[in-house]
């Protein structure tokens, strides 16, 4: 984390749930982003899966689009706006395997009881998030181009493939 403030903010938002399962999450690919979105959403409702589920059910049939939400301020309301935005984008019937999510949540010290009692809701929630991953989840890469592209373009481009993170970018993807 870049500062103690960022660390504290991340811990309140998602890291308290990620930390115990980090080694599994790092191996899970885009599942990590889906679970982070779940953890952020759970935190936005004070850790109450019941409140999160109630919110999703209340907003399930909203005819909103990504343009209906205000993300100009930093507040706990942002997580709720992002959640509404996410669910307005995920309306496909595409299915995704959730085995690694199930393994992580069923063995997670803080979440396994929630998983046991609300498995169906959590699977549906994660599926909705995964439905957006092809279009809106993107890797963030870094590197330096130390070679002449004309000599060996593939090797030169491979040097740029050092993954430094990933993210969910619904607005940038709409420009594409």
Q: Short summary of the structure?
A:
This protein is mainly alpha-helical and 176 residues long. Helices cover 59% and strands 7% of the residues. The relative contact order is 0.13.
Could you please describe the fold and organization of this structure?
The protein has 176 residues and is mostly helical. It has helices at 4-18, 22-26, 31-44, 49-59, 76-89, 99-107, 112-131, 133-136, 153-158, 170-175, and strands at residues 137-142, 162-168. The protein has a two-stranded antiparallel ribbon with strand order 1-2. It is globular, with a radius of gyration of 18 Å. The two termini are 31 Å apart.
Main sheet attributes: strand count, strand direction, barrel closure: 2 strands, antiparallel
Over all CA atoms, what is the radius of gyration? 18 Å
Distance between the termini: 31 Å
**Helix-and-strand structural type:** mainly alpha
What does the oligomeric state look like here? single chain
Tell me the β content: 5-15%
Helical percent range? 55-70%
Shape: globular
Across the major sheet, the strand order is 1-2
Count of runs of 4 or more consecutive helical residues = 10
**Low confidence ranges:** none
Number of strands: 2
């Amino acid at each position: 984390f870049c500062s103690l403030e960022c660390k504290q903010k991340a811990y309140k938002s998602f890291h308290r749930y990620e930390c115990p399962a980090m080694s599994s999450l790092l191996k899970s690919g885009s599942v990590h982003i889906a679970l982070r979105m779940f953890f952020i959403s759970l935190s936005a409702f004070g850790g109450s899966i019941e409140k999160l589920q109630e919110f999703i059910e209340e907003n399930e049939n909203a005819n909103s689009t990504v343009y209906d939400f205000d993300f100009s301020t930093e507040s706990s309301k942002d997580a709720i706006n992002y959640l509404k935005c996410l669910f307005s984008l995920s309306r496909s019937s595409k299915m995704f395997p959730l085995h690694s999510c199930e393994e992580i949540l069923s063995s997670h010290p803080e979440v396994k009881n929630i998983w046991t009692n609300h498995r169906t809701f959590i699977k549906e929630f994660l599926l909705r998030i995964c439905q957006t991953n092809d279009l809106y989840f993107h890797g963030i890469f870094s590197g330096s181009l130390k070679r002449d592209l004309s000599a060996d373009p593939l090797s030169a481009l491979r040097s740029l493939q050092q993954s430094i993170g990933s993210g969910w970018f619904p607005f940038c993807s709409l420009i594409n």
